[in-house]
Design a protein that fits this description.
- Keywords: Hydrolase, Metal-binding, Zinc.
- GO terms for molecular function: 2',3'-cyclic-nucleotide 2'-phosphodiesterase activity; ADP-ribose diphosphatase activity; CDP-glycerol diphosphatase activity; manganese ion binding.
- Monomer.
- Belongs to the ADPRibase-Mn family.
- It is a single chain.
- The longest helix has 17 residues.
- The strands form 3 sheets. The protein has a 6-stranded mixed β-sheet with strand order 5-4-1-12-13-14. A 6-stranded mixed β-sheet has the order 6-7-8-9-11-10, covered by helices on one side.
- It is 22% helix and 20% strand.
- The chain has 7 helices and 14 strands.
- It is globular and about 55 Å long.
- The chain is of the alpha/beta class.
- Strand 2 and strand 3 form a beta hairpin.
- Helix 6 packs parallel to helix 7.
Length: 332
């Protein structure tokens, strides 16, 4: 794979300012193949590890190696919890991430199926240590980093408001339960409340963003606007209805979208969670919303990862296997 792109005919290609790798929903478990919650899609639990190895090998052999990796959440599957295999499965996967590139781990629902929020904040999946913004409460997993001058990446906590990872006796759990019960009265809260429409998002495997986190993001983006920076946001759960199936949408996606639309610095929002992937460009702002295809539902003879090359006016996503190639021109 070449990270170089031509400028105009007859001119030499441009070298990217930096590159990064992206992978989502590995959901490794040492299990035979199974199915999703509704038993409509096959999941390749054991072979997902080989697909991660394929990605790492490709990045290591690339002419321009990634400066960092975005791991967009659900690194191991919730099925590891029952037999007490969570730590062992996590060790197995993290060994494959032991290369020279820094890895930024996003937290998804399967992280919380395996570990409590407090345990995750003490684990190797807390990649915020060098980037932690102390303006946030201690247990909100959100931070920013800058891989190159003029560029900022923001990792958001899509389960800040959630039934997952919270103690049932906590105020946060009670608030999340009150919220989801406004829309979902099913005995099984993993079952969507309606057959179609945006209200399908109110399930237990989704979550949302607290007002504190939204305020923090607004303040960060205000500074980025003033500096004329390019900001990419990464989280596990999509926030644009046209970039995903509604059943995988964040609870308060509209509030986060409103903040993104209020700031000129945001150029891209990257997510996982919806295993078929998705893409749309916001018609009002030009912001690119991309959902990366999940490794867990990718057959062993294919792949699901990408490498993104960043230039002054665009990002070029080179997909492998199920992931489509895309060019994200920055909004003017």
């Amino acid at each position: 794979m070449s990270a170089l792109i031509p400028t105009v005919e007859g001119c030499p290609p441009l070298t990217p300012l930096f590159t990064f790798g992206v992978i989502a929903d590995i959901q490794y478990a040492d299990l035979e193949d199974g199915f999703n919650y509704s038993r409509t899609r096959r999941r390749f639990y054991r072979s997902s590890l080989q697909l991660l190895k394929n990605a790492q090998r490709s990045w290591a052999e690339s002419a321009v190696r990634p400066d960092f990796i975005l791991q967009l959440g659900d690194i191991i599957d919730g099925f590891n919890k029952g037999p007490g295999a969570s730590e062992r499965a996590l060790d197995t996967v993290l060994r494959e991430f032991s290369g020279p590139a820094e890895v930024h781990h996003v937290w998804g629902n399967h992280e919380f199926y395996n570990f409590s929020r407090s345990a995750l904040l003490r684990s190797r999946l807390d990649s915020s240590a060098l980037h932690r913004d102390r303006g946030l409460s201690g247990d909100i997993y959100a931070y920013s980093f800058s891989p190159a001058p003029g560029f900022t990446f923001v990792v958001l906590d899509a389960y800040d408001v959630s039934l997952l990872g919270r103690e049932p006796s906590s105020e946060q759990y009670g608030h999340a339960m009150d919220l989801i019960k406004l829309y979902n009265n099913n005995d099984d809260l993993n079952c969507p409340p309606v057959l179609e429409g945006l209200q399908r998002r109110f399930t237990m495997f989704n979550g949302g963003f607290s007002q504190e986190q939204l305020d923090w993001l607004h303040a960060l983006l205000t500074v980025a606007d003033d500096k004329r920076e390019r900001v990419t946001i990464a989280s596990h759960v999509p926030v644009h209805p046209c970039s995903t199936d509604p059943v995988c949408l964040a609870w308060n996606y509209d509030e986060l979208l409103a903040i993104i639309r209020a700031h000129s610095s945001v150029v891209c929002y990257m997510a996982g969670h919806s295993h078929d992937g998705g893409y749309c460009q916001d018609k009002d702002t030009g912001v690119h919303h991309v959902t990366i295809d999940g490794v867990i539902e990718t057959p062993p003879d294919s792949d699901a990862f990408s490498t993104v090359s960043v230039y002054a006016d665009r990002m070029v996503l080179k997909g492998e296997g199920r992931v489509e190639d895309r060019v994200f021109l920055f909004p003017s």
